[in-house]
Design a protein that fits this description.
Bound molecules: zinc ion
Distance between the termini: 31 Å
Oligomer: single chain
Number of helices: 10
Strand order of the largest sheet: 1-2-8-3-9-16-10-15
Structural class: alpha+beta
Order of helices and strands: HHEEEEEEEHEHEEEHEEHEHHEHEEH
CATH class of the largest domain: Alpha Beta
Largest sheet: 8 strands, mixed
Strand content: 15-25%
CATH superfamily of the largest domain: Zn peptidases
Radius of gyration: 24 Å
Shape: globular
Length: 406
């Protein structure tokens, strides 16, 4: 099967994940896809194909050289975002895109426009796979799956390209933050790996946020408002006072690049009790730690004024993989070289979020992220240029080749 047919076949599987089921995989559709994929991997000639009960599928492309080459891995996720349906995806190919608006669904007036998505104009003259406006596309991350499988098939058909042992893995539940949780790094047995889960062509990422969540609880005292003087303590008003002590501009809507933030994601309460939930994000570990200290400091300030009112619980969620990747920077340089070898300009940028690769890096498998080619993830405007998927496939082949040359 060629790359595009393969991709179109994969998006026909409904693999939307669900954060509420508490199962792994979180939805049965992911296992159905994993089973079909396992058959395909065997059929194209990969070995050591294993699929565990949690939906983690692994396989091997054996080395075809006697040279001692490190084992490297490629990883993509099986699931699609819970944000939008992935059932009955019916994609369409817009050939030789001319730069105009693309009507995805006429009856519901869903139109993909360069005026709203200017990145479209980077792909004039290319062939775009788009949705029918009713579901997401699932290029995140079935483009990555299709690219990895196609690259393995290509390497099997081209034994003149020498490479070491390559491991591939396809995991469930990335979109609900659990893709790495049950990933058996030891069984995978690679020295390092790459997730094929980035966006636009050229993207290469090895930095992500450090992340924590903080819950600040304020206890008040309710009294009949007519008799409340010097007696009532209104926890809502105290929580509000707390919230406005934080730097006003250090929020997601005012930051970009390497700028961190405090993000108030929920404010729930009544006079008796109010709970604020913040997420804290920063690429820099020291600044990240200072942000957590600042929240604790403000909690003490509130307690100076209202003794015993405020309490805080902070828990770390994930860390920046940079500290695990920097000591082995050659694994990033290898990707830049592989991209240049196939005329792709590497675009290194910090991820303003987390990645499965970050968690895997802290589990002992350094794991930068490479573009899979899609754009506008998690919604009906998602699309992927076929030429970007082809380049991603070539990048995988080049990485395999260049790792064996070094
Ligand atoms: Zn993804």
């Amino acid at each position: 099967m060629n790359l595009v047919d393969r991709f179109l076949h994969y998006v026909s599987f409904d693999t939307q994940s669900d954060e509420l089921t508490n199962m792994t995989p979180s939805t049965p559709g992911q296992m159905v896809f994993a089973q079909a994929l396992a058959e395909e991997l065997k059929q194209i000639g990969l070995t050591e194909v294993t699929l565990d009960d949690n939906g983690y599928l692994m396989a091997t492309l054996p080395a075809n050289t006697d040279k001692k080459v490190p084992v490297i891995g490629f990883i993509a996720h099986l699931d699609t975002s819970p944000d939008m349906s992935g059932r009955h995806v019916s994609p369409r190919i817009v050939k030789n895109y001319g730069g105009a608006d693309i009507v995805l669904c006429a009856e519901e007036d869903v139109v993909l426009k360069p005026s709203e998505f200017p990145e479209l104009l980077h792909y004039v003259g290319q062939d775009l796979i788009v949705t029918d406006g009713k579901t997401l596309l699932g290029a995140d991350d079935k483009a990555g799956v299709a690219e990895i499988v196609t690259a393995m098939e290509y390497l099997l058909a081209h034994p003149e390209i020498k490479h070491g042992k390559i491991r591939v893995a396809f995991n469930p539940d990335e979109e609900i933050g659990k893709g790495a949780h049950k990933f058996d790094v030891k069984a995978f047995g690679a020295e390092w790996a790459y997730t094929m889960d980035g966006g636009e062509i050229g993207e290469l990422e090895y930095e992500n946020f450090n992340a924590a969540v903080a819950r600040v609880t304020f206890k008040g005292r309710n009294v009949h408002p007519g008799y409340a003087k010097h007696k009532m303590i209104n926890s809502i008003r105290i929580a509000n006072q707390y919230a406005i002590m934080l730097p006003r501009w250090e929020t997601p809507e005012h930051t970009e690049g390497y700028e961190g933030f405090y993000h108030l994601i929920s404010f729930e309460g009544n006079v008796e009790k109010t709970v604020l939930t913040y997420i804290i994000r920063d690429h820099d570990r020291d600044r990240f730690e200072r942000r957590k200290k600042e929240l604790e400091h403000l909690t003490r300030k509130i307690n100076n004024e209202f003794p015993g009112c405020a309490s805080i619980e902070i828990s770390d969620q994930y860390y920046n993989m940079r500290e695990k990747v920097e000591p082995v920077m050659h694994i990033v340089d290898l990707v830049s070289d592989a991209m240049r070898a196939v005329d792709v300009v590497p675009m290194v940028k910090p991820v303003r979020g987390g990645t499965d690769g970050a968690q895997l890096s802290f589990k002992g498998l350094p794991c930068p992220n490479i573009f899979a080619g899609g754009l506008n993830f998690h919604g009906r405007y998602e699309f992927v240029p076929i030429q970007s998927m082809e380049k991603a496939t070539e990048v995988i082949v080049q990485i395999a080749r260049m790792a064996a040359e070094k």
